[in-house]
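Our working data are protein records whose layout never changes between entries. Getting from the letters to the tokens is the skill we practise here. To make this concrete, we reproduce a full record directly below:
***
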Amino acid sequence: MLVLFHSKSAAEILMYGQHALPILQAAGKTFEGGLPERGVITRMQLDQAIAGIEHAVAADTDHDAPEHEGGHDDDATDHPILQSVSFRRRAWPLLTMLRLAREKGEDVTWEPAPLW
């Protein structure tokens, strides 16, 4: 499932549900049976959600691969599409949205992405 996050303060964020779930769990959301189609992080929950995600990002030991040094291509490295994406990189857009929403006192919601 593709999930679309909304906030009046930021651009929409599109994310696979399987990637959104651990981020939302770090934000303090608990779900039985997986990620619900729709949900909200209220303005009153934003401080806790941001702190939880920041804590998970700090504890993330799966760092992204270092950039090429000196700008040389290395045939031994995987193509970027094959490289794993760390929790830190996946969480960053939503964390930014939550921070902006906190500044403006707004809720953040999610729903299934529309079919194109």
Notes: The chain has a mean pLDDT of 88.
